[in-house]
Amino acid sequence: MYVSHLSLTDFRSYHQVDLTFEPGITALVGPNGQGKTNLVEAIGYISTFSSHRVPTDAPLVRAGSSAAVVRSRIVRAQDDGSERALVIEAQLGSGRSNRVKLNGAPSRARDVVGALRSVLFAPEDLALVKGDPDGRRRFVDDLAVQVTPRLAGVFSEYDRVVKQRTALLKSAAGFRGRSSVDLSTLDVWDAKLAELGAHVIVARQAVVAALDPYVGDAYEQVSDGQGAARVGYRSSLAAALAGADAERDTLPAVAGPAQPGADSATPARAVEAQMLEALGRVRPKELERGVCLVGPHRDDLVLTLGDLPAKGYASHGESWSVALALRLASYELLTNGPRAGTTEDAAQLWVADSGPDGEPVLMLDDVFAELDARRRERLAGMVAGARQVFVTAAVPGDVPERLAGARYDVLASEVARVA
């Protein structure tokens, strides 16, 4: 698949822009702060209906405007060799629900997500290694939704249940156990949290299991064999069942149902039972503190280099390479699916694309300026054969010769094709 057209109205710094693209390499070149990243952000938004830079949509609407519109035309090859075009439109409004259209017909975002698959690497991705767990959770959830779009509804419903249950716990904590607060509904929320949380955990485990070998290969190529990178999953559920403190950074990555590298992911029904048991154990602490202490909203990915965690031990260059490896591995997973021998649950989670053209659009935002000459050439060689690649750079010299292709100059949110 590839993006053949992008139209923006009052999105970020753009009042109006209409661009046409072809398959292959497209370089967006211009000084920092001129609007290059806004373009790849818009393409990524059409793919996931979220921004990689901000948690809410309000900053995406141009200052002084009440709404923004992102419209993209996607071309996909069919089994018979023909091509099919899809037009996706998202209208973002400050303080109101967004509106999504597919080929002109109103649709729900959860029904359109995944129509365009994309992988975007940006400087913000360094936080995947050095930052807090919420960024890593979002990374694996976004990837899971692209693998299996129906999971968008599961993740959204789980977040709603966590908020409702947390509100009840906060009320109970405020009354310090006085009978004025009725906790009879807490068991109902526990059951719902366990049911949905089990599906979230199993989906994440499956994605991580499928991603892990690709991460190892990508890091080896990017770093020229200077270490072995792995990705695993750490569960607050495992900690609660073991009687440990789920907030400690020293929890082992290998524990209970979250065991990275296990032969198979724990089925959802078994995880649900474990969650109910763990919730029963931590309820006194939850009532005292007014927070949900168990569930995938408190889990984390574990990134390692050799035998050491990447966070806190990896150098800046190593951290950058690990973050890049995560995105390149995501691209390979979306393109090729789980490798032979991957866990059964990971294989079952995978939903094959409806056509032969499921390769995602790859976007590299200001990547090459951070790499030395050798790593630039290695990365260029890894991505040169992709169906469509967008590269942003401050100057033309930051784009490797191997990635020569169409070029657009971007200055003050004005875009002009020059090659």
How would you describe this protein?
With 419 residues, the protein is α/β, with parallel strands linked by helices. The chain contains eleven helices and 15 strands. It has helices at residues 36-48, 109-112, 127-130, 133-147, 151-175, 186-223, 236-241, 268-289, 316-336, 344-349, 373-383; strands spanning 2-11, 14-20, 24-29, 67-77, 83-93, 99-102, 105-107, 118-121, 229-234, 300-305, 308-309, 361-365, 388-393, 406-411, 414-417. The strands form three sheets. It has a six-stranded antiparallel sheet with strand order 2-1-4-5-6-7. A six-stranded mixed sheet has the order 8-12-13-3-14-15, with helices on both faces. The protein has a three-stranded antiparallel sheet with strand order 9-10-11. The radius of gyration is 22 Å and the shape is globular. It starts with a strand and ends with a strand. Mean pLDDT is 86; it is low at 246-265 and 352-356.
